[in-house]
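Why should sequence recovery work at all? Because a backbone constrains its sequence more than one might expect. Tight turns favour small or flexible residues, buried strands favour hydrophobic ones, and helices have their own preferences. The token representation captures these environments compactly. In the example below, the structure is given first.
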């Protein structure tokens, strides 16, 4: 009997059947165009919103489905398997940006922003990384200073997913003393914002359909009600509370990519002939695929355990760090082996395995580098 994740339900199965059909019929044919344009069109975002695939775990009162994180995971798995170009942009928007507003926003903030994010009318981004501050969030230099009835935001951010399209950006900025206690989170609505400027759509080696930008804030005036959490200095704690889910959604994408890479490689190995027989009949090919299939199954079982714990509100930072580090490490190694089994064709962009290979590499870096994940795990020993 095929393996079925324990967090799956019949209702979620029905949702996924409809969602997969939509992805295959409506969005997959447009993926090549997005890669060439280096951006996803807004119509695709609105389509995902109409399907209930954006912000599914947000309560219905704010435009979501009122589901659990299990639906977020299911959406991400299906996107990565069918239209991987959407994976990073959607995960940032739905599973990373929205929870900050849901968990720390006022009632007015939630009603103002979440329904538009759920419909795809507003696209979200989060601006943590700076040219001189990546995984070390305490080193951010962007500042928001109180002047009269406003905060004035100044600074530069980089590597911001959805930066070219974003209508709403959560910005990590310093409002006080050096270190963790001086950090706050602000929501910037970009439409007509004087002092907000997008930089380049950065030229990456992979994730070509996902726009990634530099952002500049030059004396941008923000009303006090755009501060998340009601008071200054809460930002670092808010970030630490939400990072486990961010790292878990990266692990979800990693495992889905591993399974997808195996599917296409097994199919290729059955079709590709060498020396008069399919290459899967050669022991080296069969053993390599057997090893990688085992690793993917181990990753799947561990990921499902993490998802169950998160749905129950019990996923801790250490387990999330383990999931992010190990699953992304295995993703990169597994896809490398799968590419090798494709031979020269694996190096051709027309083959999905080539795109999977370059897209996978960032997984060990963003969301906190895997070296940082190991530090977090080591501190728990």
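From this structural description, the recovered sequence reads:
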């Amino acid at each position: 009997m095929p393996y079925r994740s324990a967090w799956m339900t019949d209702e979620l199965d029905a949702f996924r059947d409809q969602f997969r059909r939509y992805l295959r019929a409506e969005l997959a044919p447009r993926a090549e165009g997005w890669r060439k344009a280096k951006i996803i069109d807004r119509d695709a975002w609105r389509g995902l919103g109409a399907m209930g695939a954006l912000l599914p775990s947000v309560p219905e009162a704010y435009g979501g489905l009122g589901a659990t994180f299990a639906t977020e995971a299911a959406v991400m798995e299906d996107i990565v398997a069918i239209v991987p170009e959407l994976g990073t942009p959607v995960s940032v928007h739905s599973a990373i940006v929205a929870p900050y507003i849901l968990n720390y926003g006022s009632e007015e903030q939630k009603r103002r922003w979440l329904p538009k994010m759920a419909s795809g009318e507003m696209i979200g981004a989060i601006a943590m990384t700076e040219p001189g501050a990546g995984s070390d969030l305490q080193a951010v230099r962007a500042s928001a200073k109180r002047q009269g009835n406003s905060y004035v935001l100044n600074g530069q951010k980089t590597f911001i997913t959805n930066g070219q399209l974003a209508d709403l950006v959560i910005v990590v900025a310093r409002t006080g003393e050096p270190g963790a206690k001086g950090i706050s989170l602000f929501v910037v609505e970009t439409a007509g914002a004087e002092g907000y400027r997008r930089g380049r759509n950065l030229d990456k080696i992979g994730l070509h359909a996902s726009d990634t930008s530099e952002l500049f804030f030059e004396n941008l005036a923000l009303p006090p009600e755009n501060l998340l959490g009601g008071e200054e200095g809460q930002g670092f704690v808010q970030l630490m509370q939400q990072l486990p889910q961010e790292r878990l959604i990266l692990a979800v994408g990693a495992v889905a990519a591993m399974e997808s890479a195996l599917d296409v490689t097994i199919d290729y190995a059955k079709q590709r002939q060498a020396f008069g027989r399919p290459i899967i009949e050669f022991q080296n090919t069969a053993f390599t695929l057997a090893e990688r299939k085992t690793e993917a199954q181990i990753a799947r079982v561990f990921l499902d355990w993490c998802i169950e714990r998160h749905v129950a509100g019990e996923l801790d930072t250490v387990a999330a760090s383990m999931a992010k580090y190990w699953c992304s490490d295995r993703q990169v190694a597994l896809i490398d082996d799968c590419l090798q089994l494709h031979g020269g064709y694996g190096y051709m962009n027309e083959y999905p395995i080539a795109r999977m290979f370059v897209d996978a590499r960032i997984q060990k870096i963003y969301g906190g580098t895997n070296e940082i994940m190991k530090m977090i795990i080591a501190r728990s020993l």
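A few observations help interpret the result. The mean pLDDT is 96.
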